Amino acid sequence: MKGIIFSIMGGIFITLQGVFNSRMSEDLGVWRTNALIHLIGFTLSIVVYSFIRDGRVSGLKEVPPFYLIGGLFGGLIVFGEMSAINELGVAFAVSVLLIAQLLCAFIIDSKGLFGAVKERVKKRHWIGIGIMILGVFIFKM
């Protein structure tokens, strides 16, 4: 149940973040906004970490270097979401983003990439993805 609650919270916050960032980028520009929101996020992370202290610094040696590029994705995610919202509007942009995210997650699970447990692809998975894509087309009509 906690996972579902966190997923709902994440979905709400991602949408709100996209809207706020998109509006801010109208005054500051996309990359200045991107830098500023990541600086604010970094600051919050340091403050929270100073109280929670989860994990261990020595664990950084155990992280495969390839996974460190995850931080780069943050800048690209924010850029893509801001640009999409500016071009398409909030609901349509988020709909397309969710389908892209689901397809990427589906590929990762079905191939067992990046240490994910490999999931068997079933016909119902393809049907579900097809219905979502059809839903976005209907939504945009």
TrEMBL record:
The lineage of its organism: Bacteria, Bacillati, Bacillota, Bacilli, Bacillales. The keyword DNA-binding does not apply. It holds the Pfam family DMT_YdcZ. It comes from the Bacteria. Keywords: Membrane, Transmembrane, Transmembrane helix. This is DMT family transporter. The chain crosses the membrane at residues 31-52, 64-82, 88-109, 121-139.
